[in-house]
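Incident log, support desk, overnight shift.

02:14 A customer reports that sequence design results differ from what the structure should imply. Their input is reproduced verbatim below. On-call engineer (initials T.W.) acknowledged and began investigating.
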């Protein structure tokens, strides 16, 4: 591992410990030449996940797309970035744990809605309104009515 400060190859591991729910290893390193310390993360390399869109085009999975959709839904809601990050980690673990190389966007959207429903119902309705492309007020009201029934 090269030192990010002096580019020396002469580094040693000082400490190793599990990180991110035991899905990666955090290593604290020190450069033998300049003495500076830095942290690296070691993660299992997985096959790239391909997302199949509604029009059957395919593209590489991008965590940022899920994150931006959830962040928009949770705007001005009492949801922390840590909760959002954990939720995305859970969704990713489910997706990569399936062992599939291709996943439809509909599956990803449903997983996001399921997690949002448990986290914040307003954020859930916001996400659902865009994801399900409500055509009129009546479909929007039906979704909220279903949510209210489950509350009772």
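02:41 Re-run completed on a clean worker. Output:
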């Amino acid at each position: 591992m090269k030192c990010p400060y002096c580019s020396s190859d002469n580094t040693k591991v000082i400490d190793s410990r599990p990180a991110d729910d035991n899905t990666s290893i955090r290593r604290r390193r020190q450069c033998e030449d300049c003495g500076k310390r830095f942290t690296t993360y070691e993660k299992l390399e997985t096959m790239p996940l391909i997302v199949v869109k509604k029009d059957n085009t395919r593209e590489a999975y991008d965590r940022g797309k899920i994150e931006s959709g959830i962040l928009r839904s949770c705007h001005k809601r009492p949801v922390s970035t840590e909760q959002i990050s954990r939720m995305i980690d859970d969704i990713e673990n489910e997706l990569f744990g399936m062992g599939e190389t291709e996943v439809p966007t509909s599956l990803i959207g449903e997983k996001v809605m399921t997690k949002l429903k448990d986290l914040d119902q307003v954020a859930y309705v916001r996400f659902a309104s865009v994801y399900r492309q409500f055509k009129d007020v009546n479909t929007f009201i039906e979704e909220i009515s279903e949510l209210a029934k489950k509350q009772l």
